[in-house]
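REQUEST FORM: STRUCTURE PREDICTION
Request ID: SP-0412
Submitted by: Lab K.M.
Chain count: 1
Length (residues): 331
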Amino acid sequence: MTTTSVSATSPSPLQQFVPAVEWMVIEPLIEEIQDLKKDRKAVVLAHNYQVPTIYRGVADFTGDSLALARQAVASEAEVIVMAGVYFMAETAKILNPSRTVLIPSLQAGCSLADSITAEDVRSLRRTYPGVPVVSYVNTSAAVKAETDVCCTSANALQVVESLGVPRVIFLPDRYLGRNVAAQTEVELILWEGVCEVHEHFTPEQIRGLRSDYAGIKIVAHPECTPEVLAEADFSGSTSGMIDYVARNQPQRVALITECSMSDNVAADFPDVQFVRPCNLCPYMKRITLEGIRDALLQRQYVVEVDADIARRARSAVERMLAVGRAEQRAA
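STATUS: Completed
RESULT:
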């Protein structure tokens, strides 16, 4: 899913979702960012978990990790500002080595990416010689460099099966791995990483939502536990979740993922009631309008990736994108 930012001189659709008092404060900041983007020949890529003021106020493109990776390649901008977490900015730099990539906060990390190191991957390869490694994009550039092919939650199953082998090392999210394993005959050797946002959802919460809201549809992210997914009506990446709502237009829906996503998606579906069981990602919330403004104004913080690591990581990411292109052609 993508969206083009509104120019500073046009009425912003964001105004209908922001209290008037807050709008008076942020409008000059949004206009300043829009002007800086023009001056710096920059684009802002924003993940679906960003707050609406970023998602609708200043983002040129929005989406999940896979969509942002594709947009990073497609963009002709000289400067890419990643309104997401650090591994996403690294991926943008890996795919665009000649462009400047900025991250508005160096504290915008990821608990899942931090759960595994490049040495961990090398150790797995020694333990399971000859078994290919599939790494979720929620990993550092150094981990990607030790990987055969990357994947996202949107294409994990397709990537695993594209290898045509009976056994795969899949890392680092154990719940995404378990959920993929349930859909394929390929044996997955899993790492024990988790997303601190999704692991806290429980089956009891889901059953409580069904009890409280008649006819509600439960749409869950595959980083949730298999027990949560068993209670859901649909499981998919953030882009897949949006597509589900668009196709089905349920009367009520709960998106079992980071809660800012519900705020962003709800604006596009005014006839759907979004029930919000809210778990916030503390890392995504490190990205602010002020941080984006300062990143453009002061050219901070520049994301660099070691040339050898970038070369090897690029191969894994491009192989992932090739699987996606093959899927699109087949469709």
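NOTES: The chain has three domains: 13-108+284-298, 113-194+306-330, 198-275.
Reviewed by: T.R.
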